[in-house]
Amino acid sequence: AAKANGRNCVMVFDPEDPQTGDESENIAAILRIALEQRLMSLVYQPICNVQTGALDGAEALMRMKMPDGTPVTPNTFIPVAERTGAIVELGRWAIRTVCEELLATNRVQVASVNVSPTELKMPGFAAYVAATLAEHGLIGTRLAFEITEGVELEVDTEVVRCISELKRLGVQIWLDDFGTGFAGLSWLRMIEFDTVKIDRSFLHDCAEERGRVMLRDIISLLRHRGLRILVEGVETEEHEDLMRAYRIDQIQGYHVGRPAPAARFAMVDRFRSAAAVGLSSA
Ligand code: C2E
Ligand code: MG
Ligand code: MG
Ligand code: MG
């Protein structure tokens, strides 16, 4: 079921299919009123240091519901928001909300926000980020942006310029879903990423020896470039043990924690931090 709802399937938008068109138009219309109607929210998924067990940060993930309360998956509404341009306002709302409810309250040290190339190309994006950080009394290093490798985008000059402005603020830039597209290696050549998030499909292929060899090769490539490595989709104890054995820096996945609202997050923070202090002082 997860596969059937996967990014690739949903992003194949067929304008000839009246049903797809209707649903997309409906979502587009609702997205225009979504913020004022309080139909959007953010949940946060913990990012854990696999060696110490410390909570290193959290990723913000957008949630949408229809006016009748039915949830819509990001794999459906994000592509629509990108097509209509609604993503620009939603993205700004997400950055502000993360600063307000997660970072300024010190629930975590670092929070990441997913961004679309559309947002990075908008003039004034970095200035908006700088102003929002300042408004909340935050230093840039506490914020990270995740850029997904999967997007079909030549690494163009506008994007590169925006990224260097963000880096000058101290903001971290992470490469998301590494290994899912063909652009990953060119992204690595063009941009100085702080962290590379290896897509969860690699971990799932680890059930077989061939998959493990592949993952180890990718890890050594990234490590030689001095990148911090995060593996997504850690769903079991076995996954976590394997990542520890491979000396991965950080992990994320249902085994570590499911996405949860900011308020619930504070408890995870205290628990994980306490455990980490115990470990590192030993
Ligand atoms: P992503 O950035 O790669 O986010 C990870 C997705 O994997 C999330 O799905 C998360 O809930 C899911 N996930 C986390 N751990 C596990 C696990 O152990 N197993 C499995 N099977 N799945 C796991 P979600 O929240 O549905 O988001 C889907 C995608 O939508 C995200 O992929 C991201 O590309 C996009 N997205 C979400 N929020 C935003 C946003 O605020 N802005 C933009 N531009 N894109 C967003
Ligand atoms: Mg992400
Ligand atoms: Mg990801
Ligand atoms: Mg992924």
TL;DR of this structure?
With 282 residues, the chain is an alpha/beta fold. Helix content is 48%, strand content 18%.
For the record, give the distance between the C-alpha atoms at the N and C termini, rounded to a whole number: 44 Å
Question: How many beta-strand runs?
Answer: 9
Shape: globular
Helix content: 40-55%
How much is the radius of gyration in Å?
19 Å
Low-confidence stretches: 1-13, 274-282
Q: What compounds are bound to the protein? A: ligand C2E, magnesium ion
Strand sequence of the main sheet, in spatial order?
1-2-4-5-6-7-8-9
Mean pLDDT: 87
SSE string, helix = H, strand = E?
Answer: HHEEEHHEHHEHEHEHHEHEH
Structural class: alpha/beta
| Share in β-strands | 15-25%
Main sheet: strands, sense, barrel: 8 strands, mixed, barrel
How many helices in DSSP terms? Answer: 12
Structure commentary:
The protein has 282 residues and is α/β, with parallel strands linked by helices. 48% of the residues lie in helices and 18% in strands. The chain has an eight-stranded mixed barrel, surrounded by five helices. Helix 2 packs across helix 3, helix 3 crosses helix 4 and helix 4 packs parallel to helix 6. The longest helix has 19 residues. The chain starts with 6 loop residues before the first helix and ends with a helix. The N terminus and C terminus are likely disordered. It binds ligand C2E and magnesium ion (3 copies). One magnesium ion binds next to loops.
